[in-house]
Amino acid sequence: MNESQTTLAVICKALSESIAAGAFSAEGRLPSERALSEQFSTTRITLREALGHLEAQGLIYREVRRGWFVSPPRIVYNPLQRSHFHAMAKDQGRSAETQVIDARHCVASDTVCQKLLLPSGSDVICIRRLRYIDKRPVLYVEHYLNPLYFSGILDADLTSSLTDLYASRYDIHYGRVRFDMVPTLLTREASQALKVASGSPALFITRTNRDQNDRVIDCDLEYWRYDALHIDVEVN
Amino acid sequence: MNESQTTLAVICKALSESIAAGAFSAEGRLPSERALSEQFSTTRITLREALGHLEAQGLIYREVRRGWFVSPPRIVYNPLQRSHFHAMAKDQGRSAETQVIDARHCVASDTVCQKLLLPSGSDVICIRRLRYIDKRPVLYVEHYLNPLYFSGILDADLTSSLTDLYASRYDIHYGRVRFDMVPTLLTREASQALKVASGSPALFITRTNRDQNDRVIDCDLEYWRYDALHIDVEVN
Lengths: 236, 236
Known about the structure:
Two copies of one chain form a homodimer. By secondary structure, chain A is α+β, with helices and mostly antiparallel strands. Chain A has two domains: 68 residues, Winged helix-like DNA-binding domain superfamily/Winged helix DNA-binding domain (Arc Repressor Mutant, subunit A), CATH 1.10.10; 157 residues, Chorismate lyase, CATH 3.40.1410. Helix content of chain A is 28%, strand content 36%. In chain A, a hairpin with a 4-residue loop joins strand 8 and strand 9. Strand 7 of chain A pairs antiparallel with strand 10 of chain B, so a sheet runs across the interface.
């Protein structure tokens, strides 16, 4: 390694350790770039490269005009474990909230019709929600429901778990689930909802859900902030 | 929708359909932005927004100073199916190649030592490889092997499957595997190898592999181009 790479490695290591040790304020804001450059006796360029490395690892993130912040721990998402969003957060000692953006009948796109095994141009129920972990919006999700199975659901409280609502009101329980996960860039709708720049990286997860009778009941298009989760799968 | 959103939707739909129909040249290069603006009688701004949408979906990608290209189909990666890179590509009608960047003994990072259940500062074998699908570099991978099990492996041909080499030379076969998948941004090393801009989005997959006797034998740190794969998991 040459000298500048050594400096870079030293800064990355020192900052990673400070983050791990909880050295920054409760809000998790880092000192200014100027203060950090002085602290490490380095140039802004080298400092920014170090910050970029930590950002790439998801350890810190930048907010427009506010500076750098320590990323909260990622949520562990295990597709082999059946768990809904609120339960998953709670099991990991985190707080979860759900906000309904809108909910209505609409004509589904061809992609959604294919997932739901419906003819092209079918009417479906679309519920758009924004989900928070510890007050930070991390997941923008569009749920598409086959309306045949969920009559009157638009009158229900849609801020809590759909899993629970399906069970209590319709006696419908999840059976087989298919996950399709694609690293992607955020669409305009998703980035606006998540309050990050359009084109930011994201993980796009499509879940297609069947019920206890193996009928396809709904599909979810989930856009996750790239630094908000990791997928953990163990295979025997 | 307002008028500009309608135009945008029309352009996205028309271009998606042309791509699906294979309308572009074998190399997959799109016409210039100027030609496309004229074709759709729209402004550069709207056209670029449409191209950005298609890029976000992974349908097209941009090469520095060369323009826009149609993305090859994503490779399907199913962590529940045991298949090595070359076999996976072949099963999907694609060609695969592997290039060894370097291979040597080194002192492992703390993260790698933890994965391999070795004491901090242990010596390991590190093999860095670049993997191609249909001539495009899509995966930069660092393999870390516990040297206890793989004596003399650095003398072998490392351009083919390690899975096969483990079996034929060491009678070691994969057992349990743990996958940890994290959307991330590319590090400098990975982006240089993959010939994309540093900080480009990527999927970072850590595989920790055990053998038939449940010993941790190696771990792979895989950096995938974000538009090169999708993960497909079906859960009963």
